[in-house]
Design goal:
Layout: H1 4-15, H2 19-22, H3 29-45, E1 56-60, H4 68-73, E2 78-83, H5 89-95, E3 99-103, E4 117-122, H6 132-145, E5 146-156, E6 163-166, E7 169-171, H7 174-178, E8 185-186, E9 190-192, E10 195-201
Parallel strand pairs: 1-2, 1-4, 2-3, 4-5
Antiparallel strand pairs: 5-10, 6-7, 8-10, 9-10
The protein binds S-adenosylmethionine.
Length: about 200
């Protein structure tokens, strides 16, 4: 059975902040960096960068911390990163001031029992919560931590049915995500890397 803690500890132990760790391990460093740069361009071109202005942000799945400087440049007020593995935390701290990093599996207990976040980011991470019950718990945690009017920013694939591609990855239809975000206001769904990105705003 898939053990996410072991999988991500081992993967980040192997790659560290090399882009293949948080990116696509079957591509080269250059191809991964091009994909990350394209992701930033997609966020700017589609106006997503505007939702960072003055936001208290929680990122679930920090990876190698590539995006943190961009979020700061886009006006983010405060950043907390939560990740199931802390293998990259030392290096991310050494490159960034004023952030909090917490080792946390989002499918377990709440990080915070009050709704304190303006923006919760779960980019390229939701597909790694392969178990449906775990995914439901993660979405409840996110909902509970968001302020009214706060947004979740997520990636998804354009797929009609749930498809498990590897033991550590599942393609989840958008409707399967939206059922946990009742009455949220949705953005358009924008192309992003090899998938799509959207935000949903809590009533
Ligand atoms: C594919 S990487 C994406 C990282 C980053 N968001 C990006 O777009 O580059 C997935 C990240 O999610 C983390 N992760 C996976 N499952 C998690 C969970 N249940 N709770 C918290 N973090 C998780 C992994 O350790 C990894 O850092």
């Amino acid at each position: 059975m898939f053990n996410p803690q072991k999988y991500w500890d081992d993967r980040m132990e192997q790659w560290g902040t090399d882009p293949r760790g948080a990116g696509n391990k079957t591509l080269s460093v250059g191809e991964n960096l091009a994909m990350f740069a394209g992701a930033v361009t997609s966020m700017i071109d589609n106006g997503i960068h505007e939702i960072f202005e003055n936001a208290v942000v929680l990122e679930i799945g920090v990876g190698n911390g590539y995006f943190i400087p961009f979020y700061k440049a886009w006006g983010m007020q405060q950043y907390t990163g939560a990740d199931i593995t802390d293998k990259n935390f030392g290096e991310i701290h050494s490159k960034n001031d004023n952030l909090v990093l917490i080792k946390k599996n989002i499918t377990e207990d709440l990080l915070q029992s009050d709704p304190v976040c303006d923006l919760i980011i779960m980019i390229d991470t939701e597909q790694h919560i392969v178990d449906d019950k775990d995914f439901k718990k993660a979405m409840k945690n996110i909902h509970d931590m968001l302020k009214p009017g706060g947004r979740i920013l997520m990636t998804t694939w354009d797929t009609k049915t749930l498809e498990q591609t590897t033991d550590y990855e599942v393609k989840r239809p958008l409707d399967d995500i939206l059922k946990y975000l009742p009455n949220y206001r949705l953005s358009a769904v924008f192309p992003y890397r090899d998938k799509f990105i959207f935000w949903a705003q809590k009533p």
